[in-house]
Amino acid sequence: MRKYRLYSMLIISFCALICFSVLWISYEQSQEVAKAQTNLKKYQESRSAPVDPLDPSSASVSSSSIINDELIIPKLGVDCTISSVTVNAYNTAYHYPESVDPGMPGECGLLSHRTTYSALFRYINTLKVGDKVIIKDNSAKKEYTYVVTSNGDDVRWDYKEHPIQFAKSGEARLLLVSCHPPGHKKAAWVTHCKLQSTSNI
């Protein structure tokens, strides 16, 4: 009788140990899920609200609109003003208010036309990796030099279903956006650049 009681206690102890192990594993997994959800939320919060890259007219203009900053793309012969007011202006590139300011961590977005309003980005597709893109901040007396990191690899045919979202943190980057093919809004052409240097002017 004592022998059976000992066996019973061993079996009960073994079952209790298994139950405890299962509960502990479940707890650890729930902690990992909670951590992943928190990281996802932080990542989503670090990006702007979705933006139609080729039709920003409905976007609200920020109180600190970038006006009279200067965009220079030596290879394209571009030397124009940057403004967050409208994309439909001559010799002007549009700064997405949802994106960060030039030189800041995250993604700064600039949009311009390929066939109308000075057609500043007419030959945007000819930029090569390493080509320079310069932004002069005349208010802060700073000059930001970016270099092209990719061009032609990011053509967003589904930009209406998956609007662009600008990162608000991380490496300082610049996105040059235009329509594709030239004169049509079938896709968004995005040229990627990264900040190479900052200097005083």
UniProtKB/TrEMBL annotation:
Keyword annotations from UniProtKB, A to Z: Hydrolase
The UniProt entry, under Pfam families, shows:
Sortase
Looking up InterPro entries in the UniProt record yields:
Sortase, Sortase_dom-sf, Sortase_E
**Molecular function per GO:** hydrolase activity
Asked if the record carries the keyword Translocase, the reply is: no
Instruction: State the protein's name.
Output: Peptidase C60 sortase A and B
